[in-house]
Structures are given as structure tokens and as C-alpha cells.
Specification:
Chain B: This is Cytochrome ubiquinol oxidase subunit I. Chain B: Pfam families: COX1 (PF00115). Chain B: Keywords: Copper, Electron transport, Heme, Iron, Membrane, Metal-binding, Respiratory chain, Transmembrane, Transmembrane helix, Transport. The complex is a heterodimer of chains A (201) and B (657). Chain A has 201 residues and is mainly alpha-helical. Chain A has one domain: Four Helix Bundle (Hemerythrin (Met), subunit A) (Up-down Bundle), CATH 1.20.120.80. In chain A, helix 1 runs parallel beside helix 6 and helix 3 runs antiparallel to helix 6. The termini of chain A are far apart. The mean pLDDT of chain A is 92. The termini of chain B are far apart. Chain B has a two-stranded antiparallel sheet with strand order 1-2. Chain B is globular, with a radius of gyration of 25 Å. The longest helix of chain B is centred in the N-terminal third of the chain and has 35 residues. Chain B is mostly helical and 657 residues long. Classes of the chains: A mainly alpha (201), B mainly alpha (657). At the A-B interface, helix 1 and helix 5 of A face helix 6, helix 7 and helix 19 of B. The complex binds protoporphyrin IX containing FE and copper (II) ion. The site of protoporphyrin IX containing FE has 25 residues of chain B, from helix 8, helix 10, helix 11, helix 12 and helix 13.
């Protein structure tokens, strides 16, 4: 498991049997996550105009901030790709640096999202306000919680890369984390399209 | 927070008080016994931290049997209460709590864990694997399920039992109509148990897809393995919906959101939709493995190949798709309108077709077979007519217009007990009698087994068949009492007597396990029943930790039967045996049990900030796991393997019978 990579005809992360199974298992997990988010989107779809006595979406959305958030997260997905490229080249330092950059963008996204939440609460839209508020903030919050989890996960993997270098096993771990990170990006694109753009139309 | 602190310990009622005392005494007894016999170390090393799928499986089954007893006591209390009109044994509130606990516990902490246990024991053996794909994750799944079970089960003493039914419909289940914290247990405990189910689903999907012995194509897999695979698929699709439903329900109750409230834009029917979008597939999650078990047992004891294997597989696949398309049949009466009702009526009736195919296939398997009336076969034979009644009444309920008559009467209660007990529980008993000797090296006693079967079978029908008539006469479900003028009394009484017989049957089952452990003849034959067909009958009895000394090469469906027919030896060639790699034990899953329990408890008790902060506990466990996942496991030396193989029925000669 711990042996260094010698065979470059197969991508690093697929070189151990365990690595392969982990990756398949993780894809199945992602399938479940897709259904999880689909359910949240469905709830939002039903509740988006059930605003009770609270404000409606367009009254509180700050599109400029949301666009910045989107750019931050998309860029982080892009830099995350470089993590894998460096890893396949056997460049530990490169991989760690790219992880750090990715996480910084992720952190930027998260800080802005927290700001966004504070803004909503100040504007009179909390999870207790209306079904719209509940479903919006739960959808965003679930995504945000996933990003937070991804941040810690990335840090932990960077430490392990520093400790152990690129082995078939560490490579499959980093690969799995990168699938997760890209997945969060895809979810965000849907959030951006349906929640914010959809809300403005 | 509106917690009344004087209600923390609910022991004013005598039943509660004595249960509480009983629990304390038996816990002290258990701790004292373990200390006296110096068994703590053994328990910790050999069981609680074991990553051996077989041990995890047995722990699941032990948990499930304890829960079967708990849920069974609930059932007895309900039946005693309704045995005569205007009974005052239970108050209406207490009755609500008891039927809610009964349903929830039986589905989540009895049926699912016991099936997970059987999967853990049997699937790796049936596919010729030494282990599951993720042994440590597997143990984690067990501990998470246990955390949920413990959390749910303390509710009735600490804080109050959930009382809105296992369906927990809003708005009844919301804060407005069910204040206090009791009902929070439902959302939090089931959320935790859902994580456990997801772990099982992922683990077994990967195990089955990736770890089959060479030569075993998908269509050479035994039926039980097939049904496990499809069950896992349904779990992956259905459980996330429930996760969100439970999250939203919890947020509504604990954090004051408005998903299912009547005010401020919430929709109470949204809960019903999300719940049944999960819960209808859920009934197939529990019944498909049961189908698999029955298929194995019927083929083995009819000494014939399973009739229509391919059509069986396709029936299961079709059921898995249809199971996602029928959820509205649970609320035809709640105003969705005739068009929608008609559509769901049709899908519901359609799902009976693949189910019927399966029944016919079992019958054709038995036709002209030489049937051996061993214990497992008895249960399978009991299963077929019982489940048939369940299915036929399901079709009756499926007709939307007729359902207005049956809905939420005891007719419905009888239907789903004929499917869940007559289907799942019968199959589980068949499985326990069938595979028990493989793992423990002795059969369960035949005579006691007969008592178990006949008491249970007669008791079950006596208990539930009258409910069809009561239901048609208009007896509603979940009523804590009724007046004598209704004339329901005699049938209710009959039903209560039936329940006593069921309980007596279960007592015989427990006695049987104890008696057989002490008295039954030890066996080492690999093919315990002499007519085994699938790979589990190729390994020594009792199954060694490593399962297969040499991974077998598979040529046929029913590989072991095939080997017997072609006169191949069953013992492995000793020259081929090498050192065998095994996964290390791990204490981390137990830590996660504690972490989930604490965190869950804080959510139930609405310590909002503290609860959210406590989520760090399970995440800490995950981080530690990530750093320690480089453990290499250990090896069992080849010499030891050879010795075990020689002891475990190595000499048994094989003949086709
Ligand atoms: C032959 C196929 C089946 C059909 C057509 C069918 C049909 C139905 C229908 C229409 C209902 C709703 C009735 C009402 O609420 O008025 C129902 C309820 C139910 N069925 Fe079935 N069913 C079938 C098989 C099963 C199986 C295999 C199981 C479980 C293993 C099962 C478990 C249940 C449960 C648990 C409920 C209702 C629970 C509740 O309301 O608390 N059914 N079934
Ligand atoms: Cu259903």
C-alpha cells in the first residue's frame, strides 16, 4: 500500500485495489448526494414564492456578491484540477501548494456566504421567517456545510501528503477529495442558476 | 426551550417505574457478570472492535433480537389494552407512545439491522470473498445504528416517547400540536440510523460489484446476493430523501423553521410526500432480501435449481424501479384528486405483477422436488401463503376508490403485517435456522424449532386475520379503546390471544438458541444440509475468520451444486494456501458511537448552540480515521490456515444427492 509509484501507465490514484474500491464507493456516495441536493432543490422549487410575511428573494438577493462567490468557487475547482495534475507528475510540493490555493478560494467563498447570511437576517429573512426562508437557507446552508467539510478535509490530506509523499493510497485519497470538491462546484452552479438567476427573472 | 425539568425522568406511571428499575438491575447484573468473569477484554477485543464481517453481522442480529423483544412487549401492551372494550390499562397518550415506538423500532431497529446482519454473514461467503470492501466502515455502520437505537430507546424514560406514529405526520408532529421534546427523538435518532443504512448500502454495493470470485458474472450470483445488491441500490436512492425530510422536520421543531407548519407558507402535505417517497421503497428494502432468503431456502430443500432464475432477477430489478413510483397510494384520501389517484393506482397494481412472478417461481421450484421439511423450509412454506395474503390485500388497497373504505382501518394494519411479518420475519427465521449451523457448528434443535414455528404461525394468523374483518367493519387503526356496542370485542380478544401465541413462539426460539448451544451435536461438515448449492457451503464449518483458504474459481450458477455433480473435491488444495491478509481491529467506531449519541442527545434536548458545536465530535473521529488509515492489517500464516481447513470438514466427500 505504501510503495512509491513506479508504474505510470495507470493514473496514480487507481494503482491499488483499495484505492479503486474507495473511488467506486465514493462515486456511489456522490450519487446519494445528488439525490440529497435534488430533494433540497425540489423543496426550494415548491417554497420559493411561499414567503409568508417575510421578504421575497429579489428583495434581498445581492447579485454582485453572489457573482463574486461563484467566481471564487469556480476558480477553486480549476485550481483543484492542478492538484491532480501535479500529483500524477509525482510533484508533492506542487500538489500541496495547489491544495492550499484551492482551499484559500474555498475559504473566500465561505466568508462571503456567511456575510450573505448575516445580510439576509438583517434584511428580515431568517429560517424562522417563512417557508421560503427555511428552504433557501437550508439549501445554501447544506452546501456551505459541505464546503466547510471539504476545507478541513483538504487540510488533513495536505498534511498527509507532506508526511508520506505520493503513494497509491494517498493519491486515491486526494483524488476522492477532488471529486468531492468538483461536485460542490457543480451543485453551486445549479444554486446560482435556479436560486439567484431564477429568482431575478 | 420549553422543557419541563420535572419531566426529565418519566417514572410516575407504575409500568415506567418498573421498567426503569428492571433496566437498572439488569445493567448492573451485566456489568457485574462481565467483571466477575473477567470478560471485558474479551468483549472489547473479540467483538466490539472486531472488523470481521461475520462478527459485525452477529452483533447486528443480537441488537435486532433485543429490539424484537422490546417492540414485542409494546405489541403485547397494545393488544392487552384493546382485548376488551373500554379498557383502562393504557391511557390514550400512553397508547400513542406505544404504537409509535412499536412501529419505529420494528422497522428501523429490528427489520433493517437483522437483514444487515444476515447480509454481513452471508454475502461475502456467497461471492467467494474473504471480507467486505470496507471492514472498518462496516463496523462503524453497526455502531451508528446502535447509537440511534439506544437514543430512541431511552426516550420513554428521559424526555418522553415520540407519540405521532412511525409516520410522524405533520402538523400533528409539529411543535404546535406536540410540544415538549419527546418527538425530537424521532427525527434525530432516525437521522443517525439513516447514516448507518447508507454505510451498509455503499459497502455492500462495492463489495458485490468488485469482490466477486473470478468467474462469477453478475448472472452467476446467488439470489440473496442479487437482492442485497438491489436493496442497496434502493437505499442509495431513497434514503437521501428521508434524510432531508428528517432534517427539515428537526429544523421545524428545534429551530422554528416553516417547512411543514400550517402558517407562514409551510406545507404539511410535503412531509407526507417526502416520507412516503422514502417509506414505500423502504418496504421493498426490507422485503427484497427476504425474497432472496426464501429463494435460497426453497431451492436447497427442494433439491432443485431455482426455477426461472433470470425472471427472478428481472422481477427484483423491475420492483426496484416501480417501488419509487407508487408513494401516493398511501394518501389517496388526502385530496390529491382523481387523476393523480388513477395514475398511482395503476403503478401500484403493476407492482403486484413482478411480485406474483416471484411467488410462482418458488412454487415451480418446489414442484416435483423432493422436499426436505427441515426448519428453514418450514418457514419458507409458511411464508408463501402468508405473504400471498399480504400481496392480495395490497392489491385491494391499491385500488384508489376502494381504498376510501379501507384506509387507516385495521384492514390496512393487517395488510402490512402480513407482508412485514409474513414476509420479512418469516424469511428472517428461515435464514437464522438455515445459516446458523454454518457459523456456529451445530443446528438448532428440531423439536423446539417446530414449537417455535407452529406457535408463531398459528398465533400470527389468529392475531392478524381477524383484523381484516374488524377493518371492514370500520375499526380504525391506532384507537386506544372502543365501546362495547361496536361489537368489536370478540375479534379483538381473539387477536390478543393470537399475540400471546406469537410471544410463546418467540420464547421457544430464545430457549432453542440457548438449549442448542449447550446440547446439540457439533458438526464440521462443510455442506451442512447436504444439499447446499452456493459458495458458503464450500468453506469449513464453523466459518474461519478468513472465509476462503483459497479464492474459488466459479464456473456455474450454484457453484457448489455444480462441483458436487461433476464430482470435484471440496477441500482446497493445500499447496495453494498462502498467508492470508486480515484487517486490524479498530476502536474508532465505538468512539463514533459515543460521539453520535452525545451529539444526538443535545439536538433532542434543543441545546441549539451546544448541539451544533458537538458535531465536531464525529468529525474529529473522521479526521483521526484519516490519519490512521495507513494501518496494514495482519497476516494469518498458511500453516494455521491448513490446520483449520483440516479440522473444518476437510475430509468430507462430495456426492450429488
Ligand atoms: C403486492 C404488492 C403491494 C401492494 C399493491 C401494496 C399496496 C399498499 C397500499 C395501497 C397501501 C396503502 C393503503 C392505505 O393507507 O389505505 C399499503 C400500505 C402499506 N404497505 Fe403495502 N402493498 C404491497 C406490498 C407491500 C409489502 C411487500 C410491504 C412490506 C414488506 C408492504 C408494507 C406496507 C406498509 C408498511 C403500509 C402502510 C403503513 C402505514 O400506513 O403505516 N406492502 N400497501
Ligand atoms: Cu406503499
Amino acid at each position: 500500500m505504501e510503495s512509491k509509484i513506479t508504474n505510470y501507465s495507470v493514473p496514480t490514484e487507481y494503482q491499488s485495489e483499495l484505492g479503486k474500491m474507495n473511488i467506486l464507493g465514493f462515486w456511489i456516495f456522490i450519487a446519494a448526494e445528488i439525490i440529497l441536493f435534488a430533494t433540497l432543490f425540489a423543496l426550494y422549487g415548491v417554497y420559493h414564492d411561499r414567503i409568508g410575511d417575510g421578504p421575497a428573494g429579489p428583495e434581498v438577493f445581492v447579485i454582485k456578491d453572489v457573482v463574486i462567490q461563484t467566481v471564487l468557487l469556480l476558480t477553486s475547482s480549476f485550481t483543484c484540477g492542478y492538484v491532480i495534475t501535479s500529483m500524477r507528475r509525482g510533484n508533492v510540493k506542487g500538489a500541496i501548494v495547489w491544495i492550499a490555493i484551492t482551499l484559500l478560494f474555498g475559504l473566500g467563498f465561505l466568508v462571503m456566504e456567511i456575510n450573505e447570511f448575516i445580510h439576509y437576517v438583517n434584511a428580515g429573512l431568517a429560517i424562522q421567517t417563512s417557508a421560503f426562508g427555511s428552504s433557501l437557507l437550508t439549501l445554501l446552508g447544506t452546501h456551505g456545510a459541505h464546503v466547510t467539510f471539504g476545507l478541513f478535509w483538504g487540510i488533513i490530506l495536505a498534511i498527509q501528503l507532506a508526511q508520506r509523499g505520493i503513494t497509491a493510497f494517498t493519491a486515491s485519497k486526494v483524488h476522492i477529495w477532488s471529486i468531492y470538491w468538483h461536485f460542490l462546484d457543480v451543485v453551486w452552479i445549479f444554486v446560482f442558476t435556479f436560486v439567484y438567476l431564477g429568482g431575478l427573472m | 426551550m420549553d422543557i419541563k425539568w420535572d419531566q426529565i425522568l418519566i417514572i410516575e406511571e407504575p409500568i415506567m417505574f418498573w421498567t426503569f428499575i428492571g433496566l437498572i438491575v439488569s445493567s448492573i447484573g451485566l456489568v457485574a457478570g462481565l467483571t466477575y468473569f473477567k470478560k471485558w477484554g474479551w468483549l472489547w477485543r473479540e467483538w466490539l472492535t472486531s472488523t470481521d464481517a461475520k462478527k459485525v453481522g452477529i452483533m447486528y442480529i443480537v441488537l435486532a433480537i433485543v429490539m424484537l423483544v422490546r417492540g414485542g412487549i409494546d405489541a403485547l401492551m397494545m393488544k392487552y389494552q384493546t382485548a376488551v372494550p373500554e379498557n383502562t390499562f393504557l391511557s390514550s397518550q400512553h397508547f400513542n407512545e406505544v404504537f409509535s415506538a412499536h412501529g419505529t423500532i420494528m422497522i428501523f431497529f429490528m427489520a433493517m439491522p437483522i437483514l444487515f446482519g444476515i447480509m454481513n454473514l452471508v454475502v461475502p461467503l456467497q461471492i467467494g470473498a474473504r471480507d467486505v470492501a470496507f471492514p472498518k466502515l462496516n463496523l462503524l455502520g453497526f455502531w451508528i445504528t446502535t447509537a440511534a437505537a439506544v437514543l430512541y430507546n431511552i426516550a420513554f424514560l428521559v424526555g418522553g416517547s415520540p407519540d405521532a406514529g412511525w409516520t410522524s405526520y405533520f402538523p400533528l408532529a409539529g411543535k404546535e400540536f406536540t410540544p415538549g421534546i419527546g418527538n425530537n427523538y424521532y427525527y434525530v435518532a432516525l437521522q443517525i440510523s439513516g447514516f448507518g443504512s447508507m454505510i451498509i448500502a455503499i459497502n455492500f454495493m462495492v463489495t458485490i460489484l468488485k469482490m466477486r470470485a473470478p468467474g462469477m458474472g453478475l448472472f452467476k450470483m446467488p439470489m440473496f446476493t442479487w437482492t442485497t445488491l438491489i436493496t442497496c441500490l434502493i437505499m442509495i436512492i431513497a434514503f437521501p430523501i428521508f434524510t432531508i425530510a428528517l432534517l427539515a422536520g428537526m429544523l421545524d421543531r428545534v429551530f422554528g423553521s416553516h417547512f411543514f407548519t400550517v402558517a407562514d407558507g409551510g406545507l404539511d402535505m410535503m412531509w407526507a410526500n417526502l416520507f412516503w417517497l422514502w417509506a414505500h421503497p423502504e418496504v421493498y428494502i426490507v422485503v427484497l432480501p427476504a425474497f432472496g432468503i426464501i429463494s435460497e431456502v426453497v431451492a436447497t430443500f427442494s433439491k432443485k435449481r431455482l426455477y426461472g432464475y433470470h425472471s427472478m432477477v428481472w422481477a427484483v430489478i423491475v420492483i426496484s424501479v416501480f417501488s419509487l413510483l407508487v408513494w401516493v397510494h398511501h394518501f389517496y384520501t388526502m385530496g390529491v384528486g382523481p387523476t393523480v389517484n388513477s395514475v398511482f393506482s395503476i403503478t401500484t397494481l403493476a407492482i403486484a405483477v413482478p411480485t406474483g412472478i416471484k411467488l410462482f417461481n418458488w412454487l415451480f421450484t418446489m414442484r416435483k422436488g423432493r422436499i426436505a421439511f427441515e426448519q428453514p423450509m418450514l418457514w419458507a412454506l409458511g411464508f408463501i401463503p402468508t405473504f400471498l395474503i399480504g400481496g392480495v390485500t395490497g392489491v385491494m388497497l391499491g385500488m384508489a376508490s376502494a381504498d376510501f373504505q379501507y384506509h387507516n382501518t385495521l384492514f390496512l394494519v393487517a395488510h402490512f403485517h402480513y407482508t412485514l411479518v409474513g414476509g420479512v420475519v418469516y424469511a428472517v427465521f428461515a435464514a437464522i435456522y438455515y445459516w446458523w449451523p454454518k457459523f456456529f457448528g451445530f443446528k438448532l434443535n428440531h423439536k423446539l424449532g417446530n414449537w417455535h414455528f407452529w406457535l408463531f404461525n398459528v398465533g400470527f394468523n389468529l392475531s392478524f386475520f381477524p383484523l381484516f374483518f374488524l377493518g371492514l367493519d370500520g375499526a380504525a387503526r391506532r384507537m386506544y379503546t372502543y365501546s362495547a356496542e361496536t361489537g368489536f370485542g370478540p375479534l379483538y380478544m381473539l387477536s390478543f390471544i393470537g399475540t400471546l401465541l406469537i410471544a410463546a413462539g418467540v420464547v421457544f426460539f430464545v430457549i432453542n438458541m440457548v438449549y442448542s448451544s449447550l446440547k446439540e451435536k457439533r458438526i464440521t461438515d462443510r455442506d451442512v444440509w447436504g444439499t447446499g448449492r452456493t459458495l458458503e457451503w464450500l468453506v469449513p464449518t464453523p466459518v474461519p475468520a478468513y472465509n476462503f483458504a483459497v479464492i474459488p474459481k466459479v464456473e456455474a450458477l450454484d457453484e457448489v451444486w455444480h462441483r458436487k455433480e461433476t464430482g470435484k473435491a471440496l477441500a482446497f488444495d493445500e499447496k495453494e494456501i498462502k498467508d492470508i491478509h486480515m484487517p486490524s481491529h479498530s476502536g474508532l467506531p465505538f468512539y463514533m458511537f459515543v460521539a453520535f449519541f452525545i451529539s444526538g442527545f443535545l439536538f433532542v434536548w434543543e441545546f441549539q448552540a451546544l448541539a451544533i458545536a458537538s458535531l465536531a465530535l464525529p468529525f474529529l473521529g473522521m479526521a483521526i480515521n484519516s490519519f490512521t488509515s495507513y494501518d496494514e492489517g495482519y497476516y494469518i500464516p498458511a500453516k494455521e490456515v491448513i490446520e483449520t481447513e483440516r479440522k473444518g470438514g476437510g475430509e468430507q466427500q462430495w456426492k450429488a444427492k
